[in-house]
Structures are given as structure tokens and as C-alpha cells.
């Protein structure tokens, strides 16, 4: 991967970008413009990338090769961050007066651009047109953020955060895009059924499995919507996230979007029951016992199964403390699912809150798949691959 660093104050944040890429196992080569070196020293990027840093069009390379060509050929991805208005303009019109721009013109790798500049520069019609020209030509952008800018203004123009840039880079090159053109809906996390303004009924679901599936689907090129309960987990980059509270809210959000989806993965832990009535004031403690009448919540998976469209794939999850496979098989058939993921609650390294999982995947055709205990990210790809086979 080649990272081109331009002359903007956000150059210091690219040090973390390089560090994160290295931790993911990427081979990173950095090109710095002359202006970039005014903000961050070449030694910093050489240390973080563990590779020589290209700074001079006419410098002597470490070994004989035409440097801008060799870097262009090495790149699986060409990342420009921060991309200044000046560099964007030159890229848009094919000007190659430094090592970064020359390498950009020579590479045929995917290009990812993270702009950063003053808000008026970012929204200037010329800059907007230059970004459109680059986008139309195949370049990908990580949209600038909004907030306090180094110049003292407040508004759009902040370079995206390092984690967001790295997520965007991974999304571009990490996986085969076998879900390109598909729309995937994933549910995740626990619902909350209010008792009064401060209390609710819920469960221990962390949402990690559902979030991992949403991230994997996005990596594989799908358009993804994630309907999730209250969670501290960030939504994966590029995923439409819909936060809901109750089972009814999740039901409404899911059923309204389901007809436009090719694959639906129902990984959320939805409360089966909710209080019949919700107190508008906090319920005061007394010496007497408290009883709460419960009503049945809508069965989202059953509704999806009854209204499943031709060619649509439905994946359900089942977690039981006893007779797991027998109950999962019944649920597979009753809910008209194509796959049922029987999720172990008692196996080591599985269950609520774990980063790993142990499951048995039951298929509509009677086959069973039992992957070994693995990370939820790896398991997410297996589940999606099996879903693709159902098409």
C-alpha cells in the first residue's frame, strides 16, 4: 500500500493511519510532498512504516529502480491523506510536478482520498468540481468531517479520523466483492422493553455477532443496513445504521426495509415479551411485591419468513440452554429460514459478549456445518458464504 502525505496540519493524524495499517499486516510505503515535511518529519514515517520514505523526484533510490513507477506497481491501494485543495486540483488535471502526483498517474491501483482543508476551500465550487471529476474518474473519497478546524473556523473540512480512513481502505481491497449489487439487512444487539422512564427489560446480548456480519457484508461489496438495539459498539464504516429501542421498533424498522433486501440476517436478541403498560412516572419502591403483566411481542423472524420474497435468503439465530440442535431445527422449519445458526451458550469461548463463537449452521436442505471455535469476524464470513449458496 502507498500512502501519499500532503502539506496540511492533519498530516500528524496520518502517522496513526500508517500505524493502524501496519498492525493489520499491510506493507506500507509513504510518499511525502515538500510541504508535508514542514508538518511531520520524514523520520517519523520511516520509523512507522519501516520502509524508506520517498520525498524527492530526483533523489537517489535505495536500489536502482524508477521510484515512482516501482511504488505505483507495488500499490494495492494508493491513499492520499490529507489531500489538500492544491493536490486535488493537480490530480484532477493530471499535473505531475512531485513524487506523489507522478506516482498517482502511474498507478492502476484503487485510489482513496481523504481531503482536509478550510471549510470555505472545501465547499468552493472549484474544489467541489475537482472532487467530482476525480470521483467520476474512479477515485474513492473518505468524506471530510465537521468540527473545529486548525484555522479557528468551525465547519466541514476536518480530515476523517484515522480509524475511519483505515476502515475505508480495508473495505476497498480486503475481500472479493461477491456481494456487490446486493442489499443485506442485519439485526444486532438486545432490545429494551420499558417498564417506566428509568427501568427496562433486556438481555445480555452485546451485538458483536451482528455487527461482525454487517462489517463482513460491507467488505464483500454489499449495501448494508444494520438495525441494532442500544449498543456501545460503533457501526461499521459505510453501513447504514438504524438504532432502535423496543422489539416493536425493531419490527417496524426491519419489515419496512425487508422487501428491498436480498439477504436478511436476524442476529438480534429480541425480547419475547414487553410490559402491558408503561408507567409514565418512576415506580416507587414499597414493602409489597411488584407484579408486571407482560404481553407477547411481535415475532419478527416469523413475519419475515411468511413474507419472504422469491430469491430472498433468510438467516436466523437460535440460542438455547438445552436441546440446542433440536430446537434450532424446529425454528428453521417454523420460521421458513434458509439457514439457522445454532449459537452455543455453554461452550468455552462462546455466548454473550465473547469475541469468539461456536455454532452449528443448519441448512434448509438438511445439511449441517459445524465450524470450529473462531472469531466472530471469521464466522461472519462463513455465514455469508453459506447464505450466498442458498441463492
**Uncertain spans:** none
The amount of beta strand, in percent, is 15-25%
Radius of gyration, in Å, reads 25 Å
Major pleated sheet: 8 strands, mixed
Structural class computed from helices and strand pairing: alpha/beta
Strand segment count: 21
Distinct helical segment count: 13
Which architecture of the largest domain does the CATH hierarchy give at level 2?
3-Layer(aba) Sandwich
Euclidean distance between termini CA atoms: 35 Å
Residues in helix, %: 25-40%
CATH topology of the largest domain: Rossmann fold
Into how many domains do the coordinates divide? 2
Read across the widest sheet, the strand sequence of neighbours is 12-11-8-13-16-17-19-20
Provide the CATH top-level class of the largest domain: Alpha Beta
* Gross morphology: elongated
What's the CATH H-level superfamily name of the largest domain?
A: CoaB-like
Averaged pLDDT: 93
